[in-house]
Queue: 2 jobs
Job 1
Amino acid sequence: MKSKIKSCAITLSLTLILLPVQADEYYKPVSKHNSVTFEECSACHMAYSPEMLPQRSWETIMNNLENHFGEDASVSPGNFEQIKAYLTDNAADSGWFNTRFAHGISDENIPLRISETPYWIHEHREIHPDYWRSERVQSKSNCMACHRHADRGGYDDD
């Protein structure tokens, strides 16, 4: 019994030590964790990791799919419930610790874009505003333009 407890303690300690290093550049990709969310969301854009917005943001986005950034992104009722549950259950503020994307967001603030979060703004502070409109990037939502492994969860500086 003592060896099992010791083994669990060592595993937990290593997880806590390694977690901050990984969290900087890796967020669980949707494709590996929920195929319905991946298929519905990636039909129009990259399926963003739920870890990048707080629960209240995902709830607001999901409850307004008929006007999803100017598009009708409505889904079947069954898919709606599954996607909403996946996004909110895995949101930036859903676990026993918040991801960096949850930090600095007041309880009253409901960011609807990842690029509106304090963490995203901080990480991209040195990029000139014209860069977002360049032919290569076109939009702040085009993570793949700079982070070529974003669809697999990798957001290190490429």
Job 2
Amino acid sequence: MRRGQVLSEGTEAAHHANQEDPTYIVDHVMHHVQDSNYISFFDWKLNLPHLELFGFDLSITKHVVMMWIVAVLLILVFSKLAKKKGLTPTGAFSNFFEVFIVFIRDDMVYNIMGEKLGRRFMPFFLTQFFFILTCNLLGLVPFCATATGNIAVTGALAIITLLVTQIGGMLEQGFFTYLKNIVPPGIPAWLLPIMVPVEILGQFTKPFALTVRLFANMTAGHLVILSLFALIFIFKSFGDVVSYAVAPGVVGFVLFISLLEIFVALIQAYIFTFLSIIFIGAALHPEH
């Protein structure tokens, strides 16, 4: 027998021996939550290319692939919706998306920004909402991953909102007027040394809150589900009978949390978009 085969069999035996170790289980749970440079499906594994440009790591990762899939899905869906003739949607497919679009337009965007400015920003908010929602839901599909569970992704989405807020406010009010209105008018002069840094810092704490809220909520749900599954293997150390007794209760809890995750995916997409509308609307309407 070759030395390589001996090492391979020894490694495989150690791998199976450690599957009942709680430390191994914790690492396995984190593997499904964290980003990686490969995509796996049972025993099949696809290594993703490593790219580096001017010292920056631009490698394609699992979460990047998930975002590509989401982008393709949205392009296909809304290309089909855009080809519908007439103002009245027909068919279950169009009516399903009309519910979300009309709600975002009338109850969120127009209600806060007004129809004139709201119509200008509708494409941005619709793209933001459906992109986040699809990323959230895709993470619930077996062998897929939640791109919004990556703080780099949520941070990039929040930075886009920050840029749209600042640029939109400057274009609407003028550069110097916008800077002047960052601090509410009527504040006594002796408070300005305090209020100016506070208001400038506030421009960056808002996107920071968007980043952490979406990241934490999408990561927490998956950690709960995977940790519940890990209980089956942890209790196996007390015997197979105990593991089999715990399994039905664990599966029941997992099903409940999974249904709750669908609701959370929708709520988080709504909250992120709604807060973005408020931030951008406040920059466009300083008098409010």
